[in-house]
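Subject: two folds for Thursday's group meeting

Dear M.,

Sorry for the delay on this. The cluster queue was jammed most of the week, so I only got both jobs back this morning. I'm pasting them in the order they finished. Each block is the input sequence followed by the predicted structure tokens. Could you check whether the formatting survives your parser before we put anything on slides? The first protein is the one we discussed after the seminar.
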Amino acid sequence: MNCLGLCILVLLTTSIAGCNQLNQDKKVSIEGLFTKGFETYELKKKSGEALHVFDPHHYLDPLVVEGFKNKSGKKMWLTIPVCVKGELSTKGQYGHMGSYERQIEITGLCK
């Protein structure tokens, strides 16, 4: 292999390893309070930071159903403690009217 080919191979390997590290950095486990309500799907971390929740595989649905069963009165809002695994978004505008700086895509529940 010539020098140019070796340089290209090293650059590609470094880039791929860098991308894998970025993807790993986005994977998180977070404990907090999950709130479901009118135009609200939020996870509030213990630090106080609020994240918009994207749950395409419906991991939180059984917890929400059980929470509403145990709730008396109006069943429009629900706040429950959860621990979720997911991927954290880059900074941007998420949720209703872009009111959240970050979003978590739920990939599972903590054991």
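Second protein, same layout:
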Amino acid sequence: MKLIHDELQFDVEDLQDLDDTFSAIICAGLYAFKARIVERGDILIPSKIWAKYVSDYRKLTEEQEREATVEWLSIIDQMIEGFKPESVMTKTDKMEGRCLFAEYFHNLWS
């Protein structure tokens, strides 16, 4: 796969197994995303996670915020594992990571 004139072009080898091709891209993207948000210290927690701790996220205690942050980073780790080619996870666990990716896809912004 390569980028030519701002257009992504796939090699024949890339098309033989799109699961492997896309998994490598998604895994690398999730790694970079997590590194960026951790480095910046500006981890934006999805509202679905906030709701588990308090009804109004503006009234969150430091402990609740810490717990929500740990939960979100753990979810990201599960997503990463779901797309790792060399993962030793079971198929069920890999599928869980991929389902989390789909569930939280719109929360992957920083």
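Two things I noticed about the second structure. The mean pLDDT is 90. Residues 2-107 form one domain.

Cheers,
T.
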